[in-house]
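Q: what sequence does this backbone want?
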């Protein structure tokens, strides 16, 4: 019997994780699975404020931003309408484009990583992903993709920051290796090659007891 999963996609800006999350959601949906595809920052009230901060339309300190991402995540998990806890209980496979490892990586650059991890502990207790899929692409390739696909860049999208963020992802993966299922995927290949690898991994996981 196949079980419904909670899957988190992770990666630096320009890694292609959003494309991969969509491709996986489509493939599973086409096969008849109930799938809820979602993302952080969310499109709720706190997530919308965060998007404005990322665009530079609203000013905020890095510590405030870290707190807002945590609040947005708790709402993402717990809101009564389509919170992830509810969706999983209803039998959906939930695919989220970013979860708490994004906070560890992006905010760990600006403040103590252990503080960011401790602040997010409640989210891990509420819902820990069955798998964290890290789409691994060289930062220089990500920057090229960002520059060729977008008219403007956002707050964290520069090469120096992306190098720092990637280093923090790796630091967090080492710190959390004992309690998190973390898989690195080589994202520097064709979309379909990457998607096939992810699909095969997820199918195996669905069949595990
Ligand atoms: P996106 O590019 O995947 O839409 O994410 C928007 C930005 O939000 C991206 O630069 C990473 C950043 N971010 C954080 O800084 N902290 C977080 O906890 C999350 C989920 C995203």
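A:
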């Amino acid at each position: 019997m196949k079980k419904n999963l909670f899957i988190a996609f992770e990666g630096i800006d320009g890694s292609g994780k959003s494309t991969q999350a969509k491709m996986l959601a489509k493939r599973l949906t086409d096969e008849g699975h109930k799938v809820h595809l979602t993302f952080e920052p969310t499109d709720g009230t706190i997530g919308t404020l965060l998007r404005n901060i990322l665009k530079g339309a609203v000013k905020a300190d890095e510590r405030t931003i870290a707190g807002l991402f945590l609040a947005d995540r708790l709402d993402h998990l717990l809101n009564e309408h389509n919170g992830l806890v509810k969706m999983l209980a209803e039998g959906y496979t939930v695919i989220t484009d970013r979860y708490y490892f994004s906070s560890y990586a992006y905010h760990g650059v600006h403040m103590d990583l252990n503080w960011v991890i401790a602040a997010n502990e409640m989210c891990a207790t509420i819902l820990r992903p069955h798998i964290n899929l890290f789409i691994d692409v060289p930062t220089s390739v990500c920057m090229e993709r960002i520059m060729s696909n977008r008219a403007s860049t956002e707050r964290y999208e520069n090469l120096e920051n992306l190098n720092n963020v990637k280093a923090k992802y790796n630091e967090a993966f080492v710190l959390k290796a004992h309690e998190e299922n973390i898989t690195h995927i080589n994202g520097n290949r064709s979309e379909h090659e990457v998607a096939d690898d992810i699909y095969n991994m997820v199918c195996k996981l669905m069949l595990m007891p």
